[in-house]
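User: Could you check the structure of this?
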Amino acid sequence: MIRRRRSREQALQILYFMDYADVEAHEARNLFQGHFEVKNADASYMQTLIFGVEDHQVAIDEILEKALEHWKLYRLGKIDKSILRIGVYEMVFAVEKIASPVAINEAVELGKKYGDEKTSSFVNGVLDRVAKEYQR
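Assistant: Sure, the predicted structure tokens are below.
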């Protein structure tokens, strides 16, 4: 469980960088692994997340646009957007789908650690709406 949580954290860092620097997953992963040790994590799962989000980003963003209330995706901070993308990917698109409560909880924990004071509740609300639409 710890290894998956750490994989999500590292995937978040890479997805944030991809969004920030406008680079593709392969380049971002290589840069990350060139500067940081991927330890205490499941490197395979980290890659599944970053390449999965990249492959399904258009569909993920469409799902998020529908789930956002009074917000537009382009207005979200890069951390919040990346956390939400991981959550939607795990619930909807992953080959090994993660149960909605688990995916939401993991995303909320990422929000607590990497977001601001409102991120975790915002992420919880958005992903809860996604879960109701795509019940797993």
